[in-house]
Amino acid sequence: MNEELIFEAWAPDEGLWTPWAKPVLFANLSRVIGDPVPVDTWRSVDVGGVPPARGATAVVVDLPGKQSVLAGLALADRGYRPVPLYNVNVGPNAVIDAGEIAGALRSGADELRQMRITPDAPPAFLLDSRRMRPIRTPAPGKFDNRWIVMPQDFPSATMLMSRGIAEVVVLREDESPARGDLAHVLLRWRRAGMSILGVDVKAGSRARELTIEPPSLFRRAWYRLIALAGLRRANVGGFGAQIPEEYEGGRMSGFA
């Protein structure tokens, strides 16, 4: 199955939430060496803390690497529509390893095609919680593909509530307060009147109110500029670019 068909499995044309799916990683699947994930692995993922997909609940999966993809498949089996938001490019010496996510997306495409998910099924937005945790230090010669999410990457509270969605459940690996880039999204939804709940997948807990740490520069006009400072956007979309080698005295540092 080629990249286009794999993306279509995850983001079908008729899907209500397809406009929010990020095609960047899918377009690079042929360039990513990722081990295939055993087909039935997702069946062992416990998402019992998430309410049934009856239309009133949306999900944000903020788990590391392939675990987010597998949780998305487990939620799809319960009637949710997984929406991949992996806005990451790939390159040599990348500081964020997207290989296992790519492998899970490939393996999961066939599984997803066999599930009967309605076009208007409630969404489960998929994120890699390690998006800002590089496996190697960004430095000259490395491919810096750290990435973040912005409020614009998600439907607004108005859009969600117009579809009858009144609460959002966030799947995470702990019960600490939500911080950083995702806090900007969640707090906007909460202040618009939505319930924001959290599920600790490691503890197997049920959904409970999620504490959100008020982020700095919340709703400030210049937040986007500051948040993106130090990150590298690709000219083809998404995040990721080579860090230039340093030059000294007209020659590249480290070369005679």
Structural class: alpha/beta
Low-confidence stretches: 248-256
Strand order of the largest sheet: 2-3-1-5-6-7
The fraction of residues in strands falls at: 15-25%
Residue-averaged pLDDT, rounded?
89
Distance between the first and last residues' Cα: 47 Å
**Largest sheet descriptor:** 6 strands, mixed
Number of strands: 10
Helix % is 25-40%
The radius of gyration is: 19 Å
Q: Tell me, what's the shape?
A: globular
Our count of helices gives: 7
Elements, N to C (H/E): HHEHEHEEHEHEEHEEE
Integer tally of domains: 1
How would you describe what is shown here?
The chain has 256 residues and is α/β, with parallel strands linked by helices. It has one domain. Helix content is 25%, strand content 15%. It has seven helices and ten strands. Strands 2-3-1-5-6-7 form a six-stranded mixed beta sheet, with helices on both faces. Strands 4-8 form a two-stranded antiparallel sheet. Helix 1 packs across helix 4 and helix 3 packs parallel to helix 4. The relative contact order is 0.18. The C terminus is likely disordered.
